[in-house]
Amino acid sequence: MYLQGERARLSEFFGFDWYFRLAEEHGDEPGDGLSGYRLVQLPHDWSVEYPFDENHPTCGSGGYVKAGIGWYKKRFRVDGGRRGKRVSLLFDGAYMCAKVWLNGKELGDHVYGYTPFEFDITDALDYAGENEITVRIDNSFQPNSRWYTGSGITRDVWLKCVNRDHIPTYGTYITTEAVAGGDGAAGSYASSGDGAASGGSGNSSIGGDASGGSGAPGSGAYRINIATKAVLTGEAVLATTVFGSDGAERGRAQTAASPSGEPGQPVEIAQSFVLPNPDLWSAESPTLYKAVSTLMRGDTVLDEYETTFGVRTVAFDKDKGCIVNGAQVKLNGVCVHHDGGAVGAAVPAKMWRRRLMRLKAMGCNAIRCSHNPPDPALLDLCDELGFYVMDEAFDEWKLLKRKVFGSNTHESRGYSEWFNEYHVADIEAMLYRDRNHPSVVMWSIGNEVPEQTAPDGHTIAKKLQDICHRLDPTRLCTQACDQIMAEPRRATDAFLDTLDIIGYNYTGRWRTRAETLYDDDRHAHPGWLLMGAENPSAAGRRGDYRLDMPTDSWRRAYYAAPVNAGKLLRYTMAHDYVIGDFMWTGIDYLGEAHWPDRSSSSGVIDTAGFPKDHYYFYKSIWDRESPFAHVFPHRNLRDLRDAWGLDIPDGAIIPVLCYTNCEQVELFVDGKSYGKKAYSYPLYGMTETYAHWDKRPVAANTDDMFLCWDVPAGPGVIEVVGYIDGKEVYRHKVEAAGAPAALRVECDSGSLLADGRDVAHIEIAIVDANGLLHPAATNAVTVDVEGAAELIGLDNGKPDSHESFKGRTMSANGGLLLAVVRAKRGQPGGAVKVTVSADGLKSAIVELSLK
């Protein structure tokens, strides 16, 4: 029974007890009853439940998965006491072309798979009996994406109930402005009152002044401005209270309000008060506040609506780049797609948390949501954990993009077919939903759209940017441009001049820009705000140490991968005017692949969440505080020869690399020193007087951002020792593993909430008798779960693995495998037992309690 209780506002997770069937198997009709349907839990993605197949029309762009048409049904009852209230269904996202019925009455449809949509179901509900909701998802227009989309109701669904007098969904908008010193500098969400600055303005006129001014941390008071929409049937009072992260009240406002005069249409209520000495939000200190908006008539509470927000200033300057709370910040960013590997597009929030924590430990502080509005759970976590976010609307406007990856013999399809009809509603939905998130620091109106080079493309850019400025005059806009100096046609000046921030994709792709990077545009357009929106990473497949790998735009041998990436990274870090860079990609993702691969390997973390060697390349530059060194590969490549077809005899000379933030590193091979080395980053000049340095330079032997020794291949031990100020601060040793002997497991939690949604990640390693990871082990591993939990995915991070994510057995990759276990709904208490086994290896057990 749903919607029980006396609270004025109820919002309940509506993802349990759904039934699903594929039209391909049972016909494109919902059918009577549940014949042919199977029980599923939302979010649900049917594409990862079927075998990968080179002939699927999704092609390599979509990851060679089954798409098609699917039907969902759910039967439910609601408390009859809610009669007379307003009841709605909110879908956070469904891919794609969703059509919804309740008790046979069509509620409506929604095309775009990445924006939320809501239906008022008040008049279609049966309050006395059973209700049946039916949803049709049509993802048969293939190939319709350049990456994996998933198929189904892929995000959360909520059943909501409010009074006739209420605050609608996304009905609050909170801005702040610094008032200390009386200069009125704009704050974390503040409008400057004159709209957003253009890219050629020199610096932004919104989000705080470039020097920080009164928006600097601890600089005084901030004015909290709250605009609240309310649907009223009579006179009412809106009381808004702001609470700090400690739960203490920090401020309040109370305002009388009258109906709008048009039945069902909201009135907007403006409130404002001063918050003294707030704790400012930043990636380093992500302090959050909560505003509770209470709508009252007399002593009766009509509605209560909560909004989480942060207080912070963000500015962009043509010379200083990004300024947060008065301090210069480099956006050390990664692009992230929306899938979660083994779970497809139906990603549990805790899985996003694990991934974001890995990125945070790498020194990453910014996320680009590629190339669509993300799951709201991701933004909630970015608020909580501290990431700056580029929130992106579209990959395609009016002009169709070809979906060319992987044996595509089909006519491409795409959002361009619906753009004219739906783009306004979709970008507005993104803005209304996301504009209170402190993590969101800019909007992206598109990615690599062909309109960059079209004579009238700038008119569409301006329209989309104007929508963003109208709904949120506190943030600037960008578009990820890959045609800035492309041949034979480049992006038009009119298009680029329209943008607030010029987003560069593949900055060094064309001619001399491989050397000059941003220099030419810095001189030609000194007022532009410049940022790397997407640039290649030093990535590749985990454990791939081939010396003769073919070199192209995306693939390089392990020893060459960090060279070009390091050149751009060094330039970005050293030039203040470059706002930052979003590396492609932080995490591997499904799709954009050529068979036999079904996923991309451009990330520094694989789909299973395991870091690759090049993860430590970025950590060495982005995290300068915690000394470390990472050496690879092991000299003993014998065990990898079969896996990668290596032809490297013992004694052959191989490059051994080290990523480090130490000043010097010494390499030892079987206890013998191969000498100390250092790279020349960061370089510092003299200060105060000739021959005076704040810190004495260390002699460097390379201008690359990594160290390399040539050593003979063979068994044994390699070890690096890191030094700062001549003192040892870190050691990393890699030893040759013996034969696989056992399974080692590590779980990120000792318990699960018995809520049907909590998950635990179990990292499985194949080790030798001494507990050393075997880097070439591919043993088939089986995972069995006993108790009130279920296995929802296995993932080895191998791009060309065609084993099912949904089975109980999968081969390890590089000795590693991930198992994701989800709790079932039930009562707290009891235990879950997870047994991990493989033929010939000592098994392992994980025990989890249910809370």
- Kindly report the oligomeric state of this protein: single chain
What fraction of residues sit in β-strands? 25-35%
Main sheet makeup: 8 strands, parallel, barrel
Q: Any low-confidence stretches, pLDDT <50, length ≥5?
A: 182-218
Mean pLDDT across the residues is 92
Anisotropy-based shape:
globular
What's the N-to-C terminus distance?
23 Å
List the total number of helices: 11
Helix content: 10-25%
Structural class given helices, strands, pairing? Answer: mainly beta
Topology, number of strands: 44
Widest sheet: strand ordering: 21-22-23-24-25-26-27-28
Q: Which value, in Å, is the CA radius of gyration?
A: 28 Å
Sequence-ordered SSE layout with sheet pairings:
Layout: E1 10-13, E2 18-22, H1 23-26, E3 38-40, E4 68-76, E5 86-91, E6 98-102, E7 105-110, E8 117-120, E9 131-139, E10 157-162, E11 172-178, E12 222-230, E13 236-243, E14 249-257, E15 267-275, E16 289-297, E17 300-309, E18 314-317, E19 321-324, E20 327-329, E21 331-336, H2 349-362, E22 366-369, H3 376-385, E23 388-392, H4 416-434, E24 440-447, H5 457-471, E25 476-481, H6 493-498, E26 501-505, H7 513-516, H8 519-524, E27 530-536, H9 561-574, E28 578-584, H10 615-622, E29 629-632, H11 638-644, E30 653-660, E31 664-669, E32 672-677, E33 707-712, E34 717-724, E35 727-735, E36 742-747, E37 751-752, E38 759-767, E39 780-786, E40 789-795, E41 809-811, E42 816-823, E43 831-838, E44 841-850
Parallel strand pairs: 21-22, 21-28, 22-23, 23-24, 24-25, 25-26, 26-27, 27-28, 37-44
Antiparallel strand pairs: 1-10, 2-3, 2-4, 4-9, 5-8, 5-10, 6-7, 6-9, 11-12, 12-15, 13-14, 13-16, 16-17, 18-19, 19-20, 29-30, 30-33, 31-32, 31-34, 34-35, 36-38, 38-42, 39-41, 39-43, 40-42, 43-44
